[in-house]
Amino acid sequence: STMMRVYVHREDSPAFTQLVKFPSDDDRRTISDLIVDFVSKYNSKFSLTPPLDPATCELHRHDRKLIKRTHAALQVLSNQADVYLQVSSAHAHARARPAPVSVHHAPSPSPPKQVDASLAEAITNLLREAAESHKNRNFKHSRAIYEDVLSKIPGQLQCLYGLSEIFILNKKYAEAKEILVPAVVQHPSLPLLHKRLGDALTGLGEYEESLKAYDQSVRVLSEEETSSPDKLDAASIQLACSRTLQKMGKVDLSGALIMNVLKEDEQNFEGLFEYGCAVIDRGRAPDAVAVFLRLLVETSKPKYKSKSRLVGSMLAKCMEHPTGLETLLKDLSSATASASALAFLATTLKEHGALAEAADLYRRTRDLEPANASYALNQVHVLEVCYEISDAVTSMHSFCSNPNLHQSQGVRVDLVADLLVGLAPYTPADKGWLLADDQNAALMNAADGSEGVWGSKVGRARDPNSLEPAGHLSYTSEELDTLALHCTAVKVLFMGGAVARASKVAALVEPARSASKKPLHETLVRNEVAYFCCVRQLLEGYPMQWDPEATARPGVFLAGDSHCL
């Protein structure tokens, strides 16, 4: 396809035109990106004092209609288009407009410092670097830049927007208030600054003042069309007010605002989220399940991806209700209750602490696809965390003994399956399987220790029927998950006290582990392999004598990662 070209003009003196080329159709630059690039080149060429600030600039079409900053350039511009850069009217006239009386009694801000021409280009480059870091959520780096630039140019808008967002996201409400109180005096016509101030005041418990800030944000927004770097609409402000009213105990008013938003747009993501939260607060968690399920699907879209953890946490909270899981399963249609969908929901619930419900969903997932190693591995990990050790072993045996399981390169699954049967129900009060498993008899009966040394007799044993892969093997993702499941079997058996079985499974797994072409600590199964290696080293390299007296003492629980073994 023909390379697209766009001409960006600055008609005010000194005039300047930049040719922007789009070499491919998948170029994702936004209008905001074009503004930042133009301003950087413009400031570098003319060394203005103070330089143009990309946060206060807009792009207009030839008919002077504003182009929103968030739009993808390729979606709103045509080839050979002419667009014009102007300083936003809100910024240009901010000082000419009377500032509203501030209820915060903020001191009048000092006028912006004049920037030395030699610093103009450096500051522009810093702002571009900060924007990139902020986009990648490297907030520590972007915050340092924002604070540095604000020390040179107080009131610089990009820095105020960015720094206030970072403070509020990290619940540093006092720091946010400190920079926003003077900011709304200096920039009274920018609604986002008033809204952010309201957010900070809500976080500090200053609810009445917060509502005044939100009200001022709505007034400014309704007076004129502004060009804020972040999308802000009346619905967002109403929902912020709703959250504050909820904290004040004014539940009915809070709910009314939410319903007003949804009446205008029943698909409003933030409105639906607040509605779901309100329903939970009223003790009707099952009614909120369908809402958060719907929103969870929406988070697959790039626009809402950053909300996925928040939505997942609320769905997990719904599971605290006795009928939460039952409602979730009912809300899943037959078309959406596939193994992959159930596994996704199980993972979401697991990540947010709804472990019993996650284990149930993984069980249903395995019923649909019993030969899927990834599903089996995830189910076992959840059962481990729930301390359902016997169920974890049963799950691993079910996978390894599946007649439809394809035997690929690696460990003989049938041999592993043979070592996962015959164990009594796990009872930690009785030292687990340490005393109950007959295969530990050699350890128990050693009078002089010669047969009771794990490393000398059991740990180093090699089953002659075990698969010994030759050369360097490249494992598929499914084979890696299967190998991880076998590594987990070693860990579970060892921690449960079935040390003899753990040694025998380890002997089957080690050749497959060492034969991997790619170091396994560089793969997605590195954690399972780490536990396996630590257990194997204990079994083979660190001989331990059997101590019957220690068995009679109360157990000690040690929390830590694989190295604590």
What features would you highlight for this structure?
565 residues; mainly alpha; five-stranded mixed β-sheet; 5 strands; 56% helix; elongated
Strand content: under 5%
The residue-averaged pLDDT reads 83
Biggest sheet, open or closed, and with what strands and sense?
5 strands, mixed
Structural class: mainly alpha
Distance between the termini: 60 Å
The rounded Rg comes to 31 Å
* Biggest sheet, spatial arrangement of strands: 2-1-5-3-4
> Could you list the spans in which at least 5 consecutive residues all have pLDDT below 50?
93-115, 447-470
Shape: elongated
Specify the helix fraction band. 55-70%
- Number of DSSP-assigned strands: 5
Helix count from the secondary structure assignment = 27
Summarize the SSE layout with pairings.
Layout (H helix, E strand, L loop, with lengths): L3 E7 L5 E7 L8 H16 L10 E4 L5 E2 L5 H4 L4 E7 L1 H4 L24 H19 L3 H14 L4 H13 L3 H14 L4 H13 L3 H17 L10 H14 L3 H14 L4 H13 L3 H14 L9 H11 L5 H8 L7 H13 L3 H14 L4 H13 L3 H12 L12 H6 L14 H4 L4 H4 L9 H6 L17 H20 L2 H16 L11 H16 L6 H4 L14
Parallel strand pairs: 1-5
Antiparallel strand pairs: 1-2, 3-4, 3-5
Tell me what you see in this structure.
It is a single chain. The chain is built from 27 helices and five strands. The chain is mainly alpha-helical and 565 residues long. The chain has a five-stranded mixed beta sheet with strand order 2-1-5-3-4. Strand 1 (4-10) and strand 2 form a beta hairpin. The longest helix has 20 residues, at 477-496. The model is unreliable at 93-115 and 447-470 (pLDDT under 50).
